[in-house]
Backbone:
């Protein structure tokens, strides 16, 4: 099959492109506008593969996207393009509405125009997979409960509200126009090629450089972490075998408080790249004023994905984190230019 991956130059999109090219026989057209969050260097491992190509386009350019769908004879649209950083959505929500809500509407319309004209097997096989976040569900108390696919939406931030709106649009295009849409909502991702302003890479790189490790509030907020390559495998399964009109939660059952995550990073760094003075990097931790509207806890019940599609996370948080820290230690040429451009501008929490 031929996939159109939107946002394929971002963190998760590039992992999806690498996964599809390395581990499957599918072809990939990567459509990306190349915002600040994009990095074509993340595609270098597959950029010469004849099954991979790149198109610099905005999802809001309906006409050009429709033309690309036709020329490339796309079978699956996997939609990841988005503004994705919660802190940026608090500072400037407009971009989030423009890309995540209006952009998803434009893409759905381009896809509907294309799908309507397909016939026979190609029409039956076509899928539009909208990729979303568990943040649409709002938050959970610290002492229990999990998000299931039946949890009511209650987004807190401009980011999660824009994603919630786009989820509703995607499902409405299925219910109203019969378009074959599948939806997935995933917990926090981490792994190689993660943009250096996000929590885990920021803490790894600040830790390495002897800088402060700034933690919001008391670091009690809990997130459910998933290694990005486990997410990429789940997305391929959902796009190709998921039931149309259904949503799938994706999560690794790896709940950690932010402070635990930072402690784990300090310990992994101390093991793989000890400080010259022999001290623990935990000494670099500082506590800063909390983010407004900071959700307390997210935790995913991924039973549907596990039982219906047979997906299992392959990494625990310990194994995935060690791989991630090792990757950042070995790939300074990837992160150094981004770090110099964006260092210190954000706290990097998710
Ligand atoms: P990212 O910010 O790393 O990448 C987003 C990509 O989208 C960038 O390459 C950017 O250039 C591109 N893009 C932005 N606006 C565009 C436009 N108008 N047209 C074309 N391309 C555009 O994001 P990510 O962390 O890889 O997240 C990808 C998707 O997965 C998002 O939809 C996000 O909501 C969702 N998600 C992310 C996480 C996470 O932990 N990062 C968890 C669950 C779901």
Residues:
């Amino acid at each position: 099959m031929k996939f159109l991956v939107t946002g394929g130059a971002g963190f998760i999109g590039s992992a999806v492109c690498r996964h599809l090219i390395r581990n499957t026989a599918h072809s990939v057209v990567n459509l990306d506008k190349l915002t600040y969050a994009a990095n074509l260097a993340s595609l270098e491992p597959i950029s010469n593969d004849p099954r991979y190509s790149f198109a610099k386009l905005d999802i809001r350019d309906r006409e050009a996207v429709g033309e690309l769908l036709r020329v490339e004879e796309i079978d699956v649209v996997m939609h990841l393009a988005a503004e994705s950083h919660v802190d940026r959505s608090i500072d400037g929500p407009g971009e989030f509405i423009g890309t995540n809500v209006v952009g998803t509407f434009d893409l759905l319309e381009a896809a509907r125009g294309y799908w309507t004209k397909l016939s026979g097997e190609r029409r039956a096989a076509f899928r539009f997979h909208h990729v979303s976040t568990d943040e649409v569900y709002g938050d959970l108390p610290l002492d229990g409960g999990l998000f299931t696919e039946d949890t009511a939406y209650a987004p807190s931030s401009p980011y999660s509200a824009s994603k919630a709106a786009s989820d509703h649009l995607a499902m409405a295009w299925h219910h109203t126009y019969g378009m074959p849409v599948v939806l997935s909502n995933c917990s926090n991702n981490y792994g190689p090629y993660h943009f250096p302003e996000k929590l885990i890479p920021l803490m790894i790189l600040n830790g390495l450089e002897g800088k402060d490790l700034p933690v919001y509030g008391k670091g009690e907020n809990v997130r459910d972490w998933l290694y990005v390559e486990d997410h990429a495998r789940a997305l391929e399964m959902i796009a190709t075998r998921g039931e149309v009109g259904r949503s799938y939660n994706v999560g690794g059952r790896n709940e950690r408080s932010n402070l635990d995550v930072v402690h784990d990073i300090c310990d992994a760094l101390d093991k793989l790249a000890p400080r010259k003075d022999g001290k623990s990097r935990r000494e670099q931790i500082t506590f800063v004023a909390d983010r407004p509207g900071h959700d307390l806890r997210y935790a995913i019940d991924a039973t549907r994905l596990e039982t219906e599609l047979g997906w299992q996370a392959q990494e625990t948080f310990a194994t995935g984190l060690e791989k991630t820290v090792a990757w950042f230690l070995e790939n300074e040429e990837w992160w150094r230019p981004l770090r110099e451009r964006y260092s210190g501008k954000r706290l990097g929490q998710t």
Notes: The chain has one domain: 2-195+224-256+296-316. The chain has twelve helices and twelve strands. The chain has a mean pLDDT of 95.
